[in-house]
Amino acid sequence: MSTQRPTAAAPALETRLAIYRTMAECRQFEARAQELFFEGLVRGTTHLGIGQEAVAAGVAAAMRTDDYTFCTYRGHNHTLARGVPMAPIFAELFGRGTGLLGGKGGSMHLTSVEHGVMGSYAIIGAHLPIALGAAWSAQYRKSGQVALCFFGDGTTNIGAFHEALNMAAVWKAPVVFICENNQYMEYTPIGSVTAVPRPAADRASAYGLEPIVVDGNDPDAVYAIARTAIDRARAGDGPSLIEALTYRHGGHSRADPGKYRPDEEVKAWLARDPLPMYRARLLAEGASEVALAAIDDETRGSVAEAEQEARSAPEPSLDVLETQVWSDGGSAWRN
């Protein structure tokens, strides 16, 4: 199956600059988060999406402000792309009281209902039925909202993937499922354990859906495909399943050096890094170097400012730490 290229015209320059800004923010935030992990500031593990920024940025630019985002433990990019400020994300990674979840959730559970970010989910495939439920709620309420559900290629071999796709098609629910196929299920190449070449798109027809494959390193292509799918869902025409081909530059998590990947494969994908590719395209098509340099500089400043704010934030108080832990809201009964 070949990669589909949208036939629609590229978005306006203003939209494309906004997409570039989002990608730059994601890249610089995560690069700094990795450094801070090795300084001992980031608690727990982290799963970085460096190299995959075009998917989150392109889709988010096509969304309405009240649409829903559901993502995996590799969810920094998707959270930032919906406009969640950096400081509370850093604070959450640091386990500080000003974090998105009061410092209790960490990197794998970022949530900001205010921004439509309905959670990052650490259990593979767990959020697909939840995203379907949110879409069904929007359908029932006739709110016009659409649920966007991101997941990795490994999820396509989980039962929840098939259950959610089936019910979404049956109900014609306003949900768009987006498989970020970064070629690896943790340490295992997806192709070595999957019977079809495209783990998501090749299964779409089983649920009456169009097989859609897009270059996940091309922000314009991602935006166009997402816009079509979102508009279709909002119009009542049902769900879509998009497979975005991309690559994570690093290992599965901070503890993984990724040495199981062939050197030539890594080299080839690094040459297709979406950030410099998109920057070069924008320059070639009329954007000014001054404007792009300003975005880069402003982003560096924003990351540094957010880091300092999070560094100075207090630890979570006991009244926060001891709530939402047991069924009665606290742990006192155990003592």
Largest sheet: 6 strands, parallel
**What gap, in angstroms, lies between the N and C termini?**
60 Å
pLDDT averaged residue by residue: 94
Shape: globular
Structural category:
alpha/beta
CATH topology: Rossmann fold
Give the helix tally.
11
Would you state the CATH class? Answer: Alpha Beta
CATH architectural grouping: 3-Layer(aba) Sandwich
CATH superfamily: Thiamin diphosphate (ThDP)-binding fold, Pyr/PP domains
What is the radius of gyration?
20 Å
Proportion of helical residues: 40-55%
How many structural domains? 1
Q: Order of helices and strands, N to C?
A: HHEHHEHEHEEEEHEHHHH
Number of strands: 8
The proportion of residues in beta strands is: 5-15%
Strands ordered across the widest β-sheet: 2-1-3-4-8-7
Instruction: Provide the low-confidence segments as ranges.
Output: none
Task: Write up this protein.
- It contains 11 helices and 8 strands.
- The strands form 2 sheets. The chain has a 6-stranded parallel sheet, with helices on both faces.
- β3, α6 (159-171) and β4 (175-181) form a beta-alpha-beta unit.
- The model has no long low-confidence stretch (mean pLDDT 94).
- It has helices at residues 13-38, 53-61, 76-81, 86-94, 127-141, 159-171, 219-234, 263-270, 274-284, 289-311, 318-321; strands spanning 68-72, 117-121, 147-152, 175-181, 184-185, 188-189, 212-215, 240-245.
- It is an alpha/beta fold and 335 residues long.
- It has one domain: Thiamin diphosphate (ThDP)-binding fold, Pyr/PP domains (Rossmann fold, 3-Layer(aba) Sandwich), CATH 3.40.50.970.
- The N and C termini lie far apart (60 Å).
